[in-house]
Design goal:
The chain contains 13 helices and twelve strands. Strand 4 (135-141), helix 6 and strand 5 (166-170) form a beta-alpha-beta unit. It has helices at residues 3-9, 50-62, 74-82, 99-111, 124-130, 153-162, 216-224, 232-243, 245-264, 283-289, 305-314, 344-349, 366-377; strands spanning 67-71, 90-94, 115-119, 135-141, 166-170, 188-192, 206-210, 269-273, 296-301, 319-320, 330-332, 356-360. With 380 residues, the protein is of the alpha/beta class. It folds into two domains: 3-243, Type I PLP-dependent aspartate aminotransferase-like (Major domain) (Aspartate Aminotransferase, domain 2, 3-Layer(aba) Sandwich), CATH 3.40.640.10; 245-377, Aspartate Aminotransferase, domain 1 (Alpha-Beta Complex). The strands form two sheets. The protein has a seven-stranded mixed beta sheet with strand order 1-7-6-5-4-2-3, sandwiched between helices. Helix content is 36%, strand content 15%.
């Protein structure tokens, strides 16, 4: 089956009890057992729930995966991955990464005796040099948040495998519609399903997706024993969202491309970072690895913090908000929002300056969005 068909059909057969076409919300904690012996089937919703199972099966199919575990948030999913490591292990993390991931590495990794270091993964040679004898996990993200850098994931995976290092990749920005990192040999794929997979800014959740049988039990323990599971209602919302993922992503890509090309010519925009632009430093790599360039842009405007605030608060269709990936267009200010937990030095090292704006381009009409950006830029 093709992607669009799997998004609607996998894990979503009509309900055998009623014939309902849509998977029901199984709002129950308990399930009747046929005997006192431990049997097959559902027992307790923290361990497994039919609505969550349907969503896990669907997302696993979209990522060409064998397994998927859903969690209560993207950060809960990331914490679960951290849980498979042991004291003394080392994580090599891409320098350009979501701010919440950096907070996880700063606060939880040291508590567990895990060492973390960062490297510019645009350079495979730098990655080779940064791997230590006790490196257990390589943490990848592509395109990166917020600068949309694209990494040569197949090459990085090869380097990791040569050294016996696990790879985990956050695929939130691209979604499974635009790329499938497991096909490149990545061991674990992460998603904040809050974003493009849910798509309507009304579900909070995370996913861990993988193929390796040896990771099933440790990751299942993180979900079932750790208990940070996705609720039946939010699993149902996720199922609804994934049905239209392909349609939405095509429109996100179309709108973002038009806006990126327009802003690149604007006199008050110093630089636009969008993988679909020939000026993007990894444009050719993105063309080779991705099936589209996504809905996320990073722009550097003229001026500083004052001008950035004036621009963000002058927008009428782009809403100033922390998340991304919904049908509505959003604008974010990384140094106080997604990456506000970083020190000024850490922000500067990553190119996160006071004139950097992150745009999550929605599926409204592109002409209206461009008109909105034009009137806001006129205010600075």
């Amino acid at each position: 089956m093709q992607f669009e068909t799997r998004a609607i059909r996998v894990g979503q057969d009509p309900d055998p009890a009623t014939g309902a076409v849509i998977v029901p919300i199984y709002a129950t904690t308990n399930f009747e057992r046929p005997s006192v012996e431990h049997g097959e089937g559902y027992e307790y919703s923290r361990v497994a729930n039919p609505t969550r199972t349907a969503a896990e099966q669907c997302l696993a199919s979209l990522e060409n995966a064998k397994y998927c575990f859903l969690f209560a948030s993207g950060m809960a999913a990331e914490t679960a991955v951290l849980g498979v490591l042991r004291p003394g292990d080392h994580i090599l993390c891409t320098r350009d990464v979501y701010g919440g991931t950096i907070s996880l590495m700063k606060q939880f990794a040291p508590q567990r005796g895990i060492q973390v270091s960062y490297v510019d993964m645009r350079s495979p040679d730098c990655v080779r040099e940064a791997i230590l004898p006790h490196t257990r996990l390589m943490w990848l993200e592509s395109p990166t948040n917020p600068l949309t850098y694209v990494h040569d994931i197949p090459t990085l995976v090869q380097i990791a495998k040569e050294r016996g290092v696990l790879t985990v990749m956050d695929n939130t920005f691209a979604s499974p519609y635009l790329q499938n990192p497991l096909d490149w040999g990545v061991d674990i794929v992460l998603h904040s399903v809050t974003k493009y997979l849910g798509g309507h800014s009304d579900v909070l959740g995370g996913a861990v997706v993988f193929n390796r049988d040896d990771l099933h039990e440790p990751l299942w323990d993180q979900q079932a024993i750790g208990g940070g599971v996705l609720s039946p209602f939010e699993s149902w919302l996720l199922l609804r969202g994934m049905k239209t993922l392909a349609l939405r992503m095509r429109q996100h890509c179309h709108n973002a491309q038009r806006i990126a090309e327009h802003l690149e010519q604007h006199p008050k925009v110093k630089r636009v970072l969008y993988p679909g632009l020939p000026s993007h430093p990894q444009h050719e790599l993105a063309k080779r690895l991705m099936r589209g360039f996504g809905g996320m842009l990073a722009i550097y405007i003229e001026g500083g913090r004052e001008e950035a605030n004036r621009f963000c608060t002058s927008l009428r269709l782009f809403t100033l908000a922390s998340s991304l990936g919904g049908v509505e267009s959003l604008v974010g200010y990384p140094i106080t929002m997604s990456h506000g937990s970083l020190s000024p030095d850490e922000q500067a090292e990553r190119g996160l300056t006071e004139n950097l704006i992150r745009l999550s381009v929605g599926i409204e009409h592109a002409d209206d969005l461009i008109e909105d950006l034009e009137q806001a830029l006129a205010q600075i």
